[in-house]
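Every protein is a chain of amino acids, and every chain bends into a shape of its own. The protein below has been through that process, and both of its lines are reproduced in full.
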Amino acid sequence: MYMTAGLLMPIFAVIGAGVDLGQAYMAKTRLQQACDAGVLAGRRSMADGTYDADAITAANNMFEFNYPDDMYGSTGVTFTSSQRGSSEVTGTATATVNTILMRMFVTNIASQFTMGILGLLDPFFIFRDDNRCIHDHIAGTIVVDAE
C-alpha cells in the first residue's frame, strides 16, 4: 500500500508528460499541414511569376483557416511566406503550445519542495544572535524576551 502511494506522483507525471507531448505532436503536425496548405495556396495565386499582395493574402487566409490562433491551446501563432525563385514559395510557421498537466505537476512539486526546505531550515535560525526564524523575517516580526 505504501509503495502504491509513493508511486502515484511519478505515475501521474508520466501520464501528464504523455498527454502534453501528444498534444504538442498533434499541434506540430497540424501546423505543418497548415503551412503546406498556405504555401500551396500562395503559389496557386501567383500571377506572371510574381508573389504579390494577393498571393500573400491567399496564403495567409488558407493558413489561418487550417490553423486558427487558439488551436490546441496554442499562442503566438505566426506564418510568413515568401517567393524563392520564379516558381517556388516557401513558408515558415511557429506556435507556442502550453502544457496542461505538466504545468500543474511542476507547480505543485515546486511549492511542496520549497515549503519542505523552509520547514526544515526554519527552526535552526532561532539560534542566531537576533533569535529570529525565517518566518519572523518573512512576517517582519521580532522576538521579545519577557522577563
User: Anything to note?
Assistant: Strands lie at 74-83, 89-97. Residues 2-97 form one domain. The chain has two domains: 2-97, 101-139. The chain is about 55% helix and 15% strand.
